[in-house]
Amino acid sequence: MCVGVPAKVIEKQEYSAVVDVMGSQTTVGIIFIPEVQEGDYVIVHAGQAMSIVDEQYAQESVVEWRKFVDARDSQSIL
């Protein structure tokens, strides 16, 4: 199963972009979507931006990711 995380493009470079992923910034490759622009939302998987998505979809996805993270953080690992 592949899982992609929504991110907002902060700064575009030639073959990469700095993105904000739920409050953390990281650099990802953009070779699959060279047309991406600053301010766009993308789905990131394995360090690569895979597709451009609309802002509403990205925000709804972040809500679901936060639920997952919160549920995981509330459980202790024995």
Structure in words:
The protein is α+β, with helices and mostly antiparallel strands and 78 residues long. It is 26% helix and 40% strand. The chain has 1 helix and 5 strands; from the N terminus they run βββββα. Strands 3-2-1-4-5 form a 5-stranded antiparallel sheet, with helices on one face. It is elongated. The model has no long low-confidence stretch (mean pLDDT 90).
What spatial form do the alpha-carbon principal axes imply?
elongated
Individual helix count:
1
The main sheet orders its strands as: 3-2-1-4-5
The proportion of residues forming helix, as a percent range, comes to 25-40%
Q: Quick one: biggest sheet? A: 5 strands, antiparallel
N-to-C SSE string, H for helix and E for strand: EEEEEH
Contiguous runs where pLDDT drops below 50 for at least 5 residues: none
| Strand count | 5
In round numbers, the mean pLDDT is 90
What is the distance, rounded to the nearest whole angstrom, between the alpha carbons of the first and last residues? 26 Å
| β-strand amount | 35-45%
Work out the radius of gyration. Answer: 13 Å
Structural class: alpha+beta
